[in-house]
Amino acid sequence: MSSFTSKFADELIANAAYIGTPGKGILAADESTGTIGKRLSSINVENNETNRRNLRELLFTTPGSLPCLSGVILFEETLYQKSSNGTPFVEILKEGGVLPGIKVDKGTVELAGTNGETTTQGLDGLGERCKKYYEAGARFAKWRAVLKIDENEPSELAIHENAYGLARYAVICQENGLVPIVEPEILVDGSHDIHKCAAVTERVLAACYKALSDHHVLLEGTLLKPNMVTPGSESAKVAPEVIAEHTVRALQRTVPAAVPAIVFLSGGQSEEEATRNLNAMNQLKTKKPWSLSFSFGRALQQSTLKTWGGKEENVKKAQEAFLVRCKANSEATLGVYKGDAQLGDGAAESLHVKDYKY
Amino acid sequence: MSCFKSKFADELIANAAYIGSPGKGILAADESTGTIGKRFASINVENVESNRRALRELLFTTPGALQFISGIILFEETLYQKTASGKLFVDVMKEAKVLPGIKVDKGTVELAGTNGETTTIGLDGLGERCKKYYEAGARFAKWRAVLKIGANEPSELAIHENAYGLARYAVICQENGLVPIVEPEILVDGSHDIEKCAYVTERVLAACYKALNDHHVILEGTLLKPNMVTPGSDCKSKAKPEVIAEHTVRALQRTVPAAVPAVVFLSGGQSEEQATVNLNAINQLKGKKPWSLTFSYGRALQQSTLKAWGGKEENVEKAQKAFLARAKANSEASVGGYKGDANLGEGASESLHVKDYKY
């Protein structure tokens, strides 16, 4: 096998497969302190540790939500936090059958000589950090690489650097028992059409899987977190079925069957859009040798955040909003979403932020 | 899409899918004049055009055989030959719903500075030749790249050159209406174990699909013709069909995108029976297999037929029965339904391994 033999191989394979369980998906709750600050300020809530803890507790203790989730991605701070009654969050998740995950990258920096393209940093000492996170209960990791579409972008340099950074991160994770989520996000920003997005997505994913092969990564113990294939944010919208067709075709052309699950990012899509698009993909009749699920951040939390507004008395209502989105996306992974989720305040609101950094 | 827009796109996709029809596979009858000469020598038959024609007629007109065959790869000479009664071979095939294919590479040459590694030639004027072949009735093509396993082989250079040669060939074919069979054969020669073969196969296939993507090839309009994953010919431990199946399918799961409609295995030096039994085990394996898994056999379909024929008119019927038996057996194997009861013709269990095989 071109993969190395990790002593964690069986566990990695089992955990990656579990995350792709039909009816389940990932809650991306790994907003960095800076990013969560922006969310909190949009609902007039102060960005302090207590409030950050309260928000996550609200999400993780929502009755009925954990069965819809197979994993939750956490920011480092959250990995060590506890609920108000003193139970570590990782325990709450584990008891709920949810694998804790951890964001391990250290953000992006610009690539000199390019037109604002970036690479992701975080490889230094990554092995040690992964070991620590595993001891704290984490079982998967996430690293976000970012590319953009423009006249001369993404460049060959940007694709190569990001693909090989992802591959190096992935194998270091596997050496330390964490299933790596490979996330090569191609930003939705731009006026390009869906065909351009498809062409770029296929090129980027092909580069990623070549890099993963070169780095001896065990594909059965990884997950892919790609963008869906859509028109650019400044282009006319298309129907979910069209997004589904282009997205699944791009994956068929690039993602080996050994990968157990693909967990889409929501990008700037509204809660409802993200759910409908995921649903359309799971309804498509064609070869799909990986499960197709969600790893949503904004698209799972938007209406919940608005409903909460930082107030204790709103917790129950906010939890209801969260449960609605969890269930809707759980159904979407099975292709049975009927579009009848109670649209919470903001569920149809676009969550697109130009040149999104988090 | 990252693939180019061929005016032949729909046809390529349909033909590639057809070749992978359950219960069918490819007869590789594209032995060059030199190579068929070696086969003939082994049965004491003179290597002249009429004998070459007679052999292919024997195969293509075997009653009941073509239903198990979705495509036949031909050498250029054969593309223009006719049956004794004057009917073009390509017409015989078309009537039986068999797609004619054409070998388009011009053999291998050594890569300077390597330890006997090679690259395949044939790109010059390939577009023109493909156009001609399409007009003559061909609908798919084949190009054989060759790699070997050694202490330091395959080298990164050999892998890169062969992968990118295959990709360039593939897109030129698609520009001209021919479905390219992508064949990166890793020779079975050597004393390495099955794990080593798996490692190399995965590395080579990953490089091939990166190259195909770089060259904008429409994967839905291609076929893959790989080696199975087996121990080397000199390896002390042999592997059971189930073990070969497991390693082979895993290697494909790790490298071959689902967009590829079919994987058509080469038989390498395997005997007729081994090649069938292994294909059968591959199709019985439970696991993700988003491409059909069938055969593209040359020696492993013709060995006992050749022996039974011996170049003699009076043996044609006997030889055709032998061919039918293998064609049927492999058809069953392509759906995991082979019971191991094919009448073993003379030579069916004989290893067909020739060290450092060139053809």
What structural keywords apply?
homodimer; 358 residues; alpha/beta; TIM Barrel; 8-stranded parallel sheet; two-stranded antiparallel sheet; 12 helices; 10 strands; 42% helix; 14% strand; globular
Number of domains of chain A: 1
Helix content of chain A: 40-55%
Largest interface, and how many residues on either side? Answer: A-B, 29 and 27 residues
Quaternary structure type? homodimer
Name of the CATH homologous superfamily of chain A: Aldolase class I
| Unreliable residue runs of chain A | none
Mean pLDDT score of chain A = 95
SSE order of chain A, as H and E?
HEHHEHHEEEHEHEHEHEHEHH
Structure description:
The structure is a homodimer. Chain A is α/β, with parallel strands linked by helices and 358 residues long. The first copy, chain A, has one domain (8-334): Alpha-Beta Barrel (TIM Barrel), CATH 3.20.20.70. Chain A has 12 helices and 10 strands. In chain A, the strands form 2 sheets. In chain A, strands 8-7-6-3-2-1-10-9 form an 8-stranded parallel β-sheet. In chain A, strands 4-5 form a two-stranded antiparallel ribbon. In chain A, strand 4 and strand 5 form a beta hairpin. In chain A, helix 7 (156-175) crosses helix 8 (194-214) and helix 10 (271-283) runs parallel beside helix 12 (315-333). The two termini of chain A are 36 Å apart. The model of chain A has no long low-confidence stretch (mean pLDDT 95). Chains A and B meet through helix 8 and helix 9 of A and helix 8 and helix 9 of B. Chain B: Its EC number is 4.1.2.13. Chain B: Belongs to the class I fructose-bisphosphate aldolase family.
